Amino acid sequence: MKRRTFDTLASAGGAVLAVVLLVAGALLMWGYTFANSTVHDQLAQQQVYFPTTAAIQSAPASSTEIPPSIKQYLLPYAGQQVLTGPQAETYANHFIAVHLYAMPYHGVYANVSAASMSAPKGSVQATTLANEANTVFKGTTLRSMLLEAYGFWTFGQIAMWAGIASFCLAFVMVVLVGLGIWHERRTPAEVELLNPKAAHLAA
């Protein structure tokens, strides 16, 4: 095979790969934008806010609403509305989860619900547990929604970095294609790929 033929084929293959990488990068960036905007819009509708800085800092050590163990996680987002993946994850795991754990049966809905159904009907215990089960259900549901938003946001971030990598690889391929074309034009037409000296010896 002539060396120029090989260069032409390699350059054409590189050009095709560069186009594929560019398309993949564009799709990945679209996925990132879609994930981010969807998470933002869905969270905005819930209108969930972190406690204010004053509320966090003034909470006593004995507070069950804002115990000292979660202050470090809440302060960076104090007073903010939950609109991003990291905010949703923090609110779910370092605020809701802490309050659920402090409830009867550590806020496990299946256990609270079972206890509520097994309590004597009409008793104070049954009413109390029914209220607890209702609260745990709402808290668990909100926490699940927030963590789902966080997971979706995380996929968006992965898509963003994959898109950037795809664009970088496409740029590298464009450079290599350019070098391949340059090399093809500098190579004599009679030069063989596996025996570049053959044409010179024949002459």
Structural write-up:
By secondary structure, the chain is an all-alpha fold. It has one domain. The protein is built from 7 helices and no strands. The protein has helices at 3-46, 53-58, 68-74, 85-101, 109-118, 124-186, 198-202. The model is unreliable at 199-203 (pLDDT under 50).
Concise overview:
The chain has helices at about 5-45, 55-60, 70-75, 85-100, 110-120, 125-185, 200.
Number of domains: 1
Radius of gyration of CA atoms, rounded to a whole number: 31 Å
Taking all residues together, what is the mean pLDDT?
85
The proportion of residues forming helix, as a percent range, comes to: over 70%
**Which sheet architecture does the biggest sheet show?**
none
Task: Return the string of H and E elements.
Answer: HHHHHHH
Question: How many individual helices?
Answer: 7
Rough outline: elongated
- In terms of DSSP E residues, the strand content is under 5%
Q: Given the helix and strand composition, which structural class is it?
A: mainly alpha
What kind of oligomer do you see? single chain
